[in-house]
Amino acid sequence: MHAIAGIASALLALLIAHGLGRIVLRKRPADPVRLVARTAAGLGLWGLCLLALGIAGLYTRAGLGALTVLLALPALGGGRQLIEDLGAWRGVFRDRLAALIFAATALVLLFNAVRAAVPTSDNDSLRYHLAAPKTWLREGRIVYLPVITINGPASAQCFNGLFLAFPGERGATLFVFLTLVLSVALAAASLLSRYGPRAAAVAAAAIAGLLNFKDLIGSASDIPAFTLFTLASLVFLADRAWLPAALFAGFAAGAKMAGLAVILIATLLTIPLGWRKTLGLALVAGALAFPWYLKSWAWTGNPVWPFAYSVFGGRDWSAAAGDELVWGLGLGRSPVDPAWFAGLAYRALLWRTGAPFLLVPLLLVLFRLDRRQKILLGAFCLAVPLWWLSSPQPRFLLPFHAAVAMTVAVAAARLMDRVRPLAVAAVVVLAVGLAYQGTGRAWNVWRGKSRRVCPRVVEHLNRELPGGAVVFVNAFGVEFLLERRFVTGIPLISCAVLWPDMRSAEELRARLRELGITHVLTTPGPTPYFRTPPGRTLDPMLDRCGVLLRRDGGLALYALRD
User: Fold this and answer.
1) Burial class (CB in 10 A: 0-12, 13-18, 19+), 313
2) Which of 35, 39, 377, 379 has the fewest CB atoms found within 10 Å of its own CB?
């Protein structure tokens, strides 16, 4: 019954989204793109409605229920339209080679989704990241600091709230999986009517190879929505449809600095259309993005928190904390960094896709690019330096890697049409690449333990700590095991907020006490999650202001001194 309820809730969500999108994209775009574009637009509008609830203080079960009933009304008209839009995809399967590639892609996506939903020894399952926060809020076990809530369930970051609005872990998991599939379908649909089913199939296969479900959802649930909205904006830019492009760029802007980069890229690519359309795109996208930054500014004093701290400052922030954040994320500023990051971007592209993208240089040299391909490649070239200036984490380049994949897919389809032996070779290369993505690279994860063992430190915490204890968690992947109230967030940012200057252990203890925290559960010393500059580790300060209760398995539990 739980599985049926989860599937039903996810399908209802997509139906509501399609009905909402039908309001703003009634006649555009062409038939093959309608299904995906309307659903994506509806998701963006839904996210803005959830944001309005959060700003108004109505982000409660009653508020979500009322919103769902209200939004279900457009779904009544969206159902019939959904059936018509699905009919536009029948032509995809008339080409046997394209149908074969699509089938292989679907199997790989399904395999990745199942693998991601199973708990393993080195990554938690999707259900803990998507369903656990709702359980924490319902049971009163989680205490979010206002500044940390920016990255929590009421997030201002790219519609995380959408993934928490559906009952049951299976519904949330399926909904996120379908969001990623929408990105693949959008790219394929945009190529189907213009370049044929083979180009659409190759693009779908290549983008499926980009998706790493564990990485995208296990630690960054905002990326699926960011990818979908950014890719939709680029697709409409390639069609010179500036208004839908502005709509989706505004939705993508919920990702703060990375989202602002999307608006800037869309604006630059619209310049050939004339200054009126360029200005119109900037104004529409900016208006849609404004609520996200308004909420961040109201809560932290910084609209793009935690970035641009030297300009905006903000409550509970300091230059020392900002410097530490920059150091921890690896944001260098030396003269050779732009070239190094450009190489890193291309290396990430090859690493994520494997064999298919080894053909990128050959395909781009052999064939001349049309206007649409130039726009997609231009977006990637603009994204790399902006990515370097904001948050150089490879996952934020995912939609731009997908744009490159679409360009390569067109060239690959032309090769397959002109030279028949190359068509067979292309199928072999795609099969090897998909198999590499689906099994080979992550097979050690797939063979991991199916159940996560509770660390002994956490068992001690649950068993021995008093009922009124509040624990600050500076470690990933253990929150769902705690049975005490806790404060959490991104460990690096949370620590920078909690002790901005790290001057003394006494100030640290006073700050924690001020926030009602009685215990600290942390990963001692510099880690990939909490990187501190040399000579500034957390251990000595906690040793002076707290009592070590237990240390085991890379975790340490401290009780603050009275």
Assistant:
1) middle
2) 377
Task: Provide the whole-model pTM.
Answer: 0.68
Cβ-count burial of 269 within 10 angstroms (0-12 exposed, 13-18 middle, 19+ buried)? buried
Find residue 428's DSSP bridge partners. Answer: none
Buried b (16+ CB within 10 A) or exposed e, 488-498: bbbbbbbbbbb
Collapse the DSSP code of 531 into the 3-class scheme (helix H, G, I; strand E, B; otherwise coil) and give the result. coil
- The residues, any chain, with a CB within 8 Å of residue 205's CB and separated by 6 or more, are 101, 102, 104, 105, 356, 430, 433, 434
**Contact indicator for 231, 187 with CB cutoff of 8 Å:** yes
Q: CB neighbours (10 Å) of residue 44?
A: 26
Tell which residue, 424, 429, 426, has the closest CA to residue 410: 426
- Which DSSP category does 142 fall into? B
Q: 556, 522 in Cβ contact below 8 A?
A: yes
Q: Which of 187-201, 246-260, 292-306, 336-350 has the lowest mean pLDDT?
A: 336-350
Tell me if the bond preceding 29 is cis, omega within 30° of 0: yes
CA separation for the pair 226, 294 (Å, rounded) = 19
Question: Judging by DSSP bridges, how do beta strands 470-474 and 519-522 pair with one another?
Answer: parallel
Q: Max alpha carbon distance in the chain (Å)? A: 78
For residue range 491-503, list pLDDT tens digits in order: 444 554 455 455 6
195/414 Cα distance (integer angstroms): 9
280 phi and psi angles, rounded to 5 deg = -60, -45
